[in-house]
Automatic annotation (TrEMBL):
Domain Glycosyl transferase family: 195-357
Protein name (database record): Glycosyl transferase family 1
CDD domains associated with the record: GT4_CapM-like
InterPro entries according to UniProt: Glyco_trans_1, Glyco_trans_4-like_N
Alphabetic keyword roster: Transferase
The species this protein was found in: Halolactibacillus alkaliphilus
Domain Glycosyltransferase subfamily 4-like N-terminal: 21-160
GO terms assigned for molecular function: glycosyltransferase activity
Length: 385
């Protein structure tokens, strides 16, 4: 049969780090030589230090990695011609059994390369940019591109039900699969031990305070503003809002908290490596995003047994059952977030009940389940199906 060689590709290295290491290890265990291609230099959502850790981890696994000069804007085709040529050269030189690609730009480039080099392509859509309630421009720009490229896709993997149903009905990929997310190491979160008082002391918060936690970049999509405004409406000084993440709205959110008179109740903690421990000392998880595919942060909160108030959007509604694991609220509904946060603060029995429900439900999204499905998909490509 010859050497089995495959390429894992994403536009940025942080996507490899966050979502693809289990796939890489699975492929190695299946006997493949694995290459990785992405932009290690620009556009990443993690630190340069973390990128270096990723490179070291790849080297330990004997994975060859390649710098591809992807640009973030999918519409600037001229900017990504260089990236296309780089990936095409890799495909010609290495004769990959298949490419498994991620991210919109990675998906465009890989499928065009696949067509040109007759290389099979698996594409994981981590959440189409077009969805129920998406801006019209997203439908005008992204929908035609994805629909056209689907015919050059050997396997299209979707990670939420809305995307799966739309792809099944509208797209021409050879195979369309639903997999429940990218896989969560449930045990890692369920079994974490932490000294609650010591951890809260480290953050600078007393044991008596009610902690609402959000995890995600400080950007418009993650919509932390709505929770800040909801907390201001509740007017309860014993509520503390922790946000783990960094981004360009840091200054704006700090100023907004001051304007609303709750700057002492809002802690922007920046990038954190101890999310499981922070989840363990929190009381409620708030997740008000406008757009998600299937959020790992939300799954991690569920694994920690936290009740949730989140936006009623694609992906979130796959994970949270309204009235069972939390409450679903429209993303811009400050009053709705305030109402349900207040309700959960006042009723510890419901918090416990919701937390137990989430703790049990998230087992369906475990890394073991996801890798089992991925192995089936990878085996089919090797068999020529």
């Amino acid at each position: 049969m010859g050497e089995k060689r495959v390429l894992i590709l994403a536009s940025v290295a942080s996507m490899i780090d966050q979502f693809n290491m289990p796939n890489i290890e699975l492929l190695i265990n299946m006997g493949y030589e694995v290459h990785v291609a992405c932009n290690f230099i620009e556009g990443n959502t993690c630190s340069n230090e973390r990128i270096n850790v990723l490179k070291n981890n790849l080297m330990k696994l004997s994975v060859k990695f390649h710098q591809i000069d992807f640009k973030r804007n999918v519409m600037k085709f001229s900017d990504n011609i260089k990236a296309y040529n780089q990936v095409k050269n890799l495909a010609n030189d290495n004769k990959y059994k298949f490419i498994h690609c991620h991210s919109p730009i990675g998906g465009v480039v890989s499928r065009l390369v696949g067509k040109a080099t007759k290389t099979k392509v698996i594409y994981t859509a981590h959440g189409f940019h077009f969805f129920k309630g998406a801006p019209l421009k997203n439908w005008i720009i992204y929908y035609p591109i994805e629909k056209w490229l689907s015919r050059y896709t050997d396997v299209l993997i979707t990670i939420n039900k809305e995307d799966y149903n739309r792809a099944k009905n509208k797209f021409k990929a050879k195979k369309i699969e639903y997999i429940p997310g990218v896989g969560l190491d449930v045990d890692k979160f369920q079994n974490v031990m932490v000294d609650k008082k010591a951890k809260r002391d480290e953050i600078g918060i007393s044991e008596e305070v009610f902690i609402i936690l959000s995890v995600g970049e400080l950007n418009k999509n993650k919509n932390h503003e709505v929770v800040i405004r909801a907390i201001a409406k509740i007017d309860n000084p014993s509520i503390h809002y922790l946000v783990c993440g960094q981004g360009n709205l840091d200054g704006y959110l700090r100023n907004l908290s001051k304007e609303l008179g709750i700057e002492n109740q809002v802690n922007l903690l920046g990038f954190r490596k101890d999310i499981p421990e922070i989840c363990k000392v929190s009381d409620l998880f708030a997740f008000p995003s406008y757009r998600e595919g299937l959020s790992v942060a939300l799954m991690e909160a569920m694994a920690n047994g936290l009740p949730v108030v989140c936006s009623n959007i694609r992906g979130n509604s796959d994970l949270i059952e309204d009235g069972k694991g939390g409450y679903l609220v429209e993303p811009a509904d400050v009053e709705g977030f305030a109402k349900y946060i207040k309700e959960l603060i006042s009723d510890s029995d419901i918090r416990i009940e919701f937390g137990k429900f989430n703790h049990k439900k998230i087992e369906n999204y475990s890394i073991e389940n996801v890798l089992c499905e991925m192995e089936k998909i990878y085996k089919l490509q090797n068999e020529g199906v």
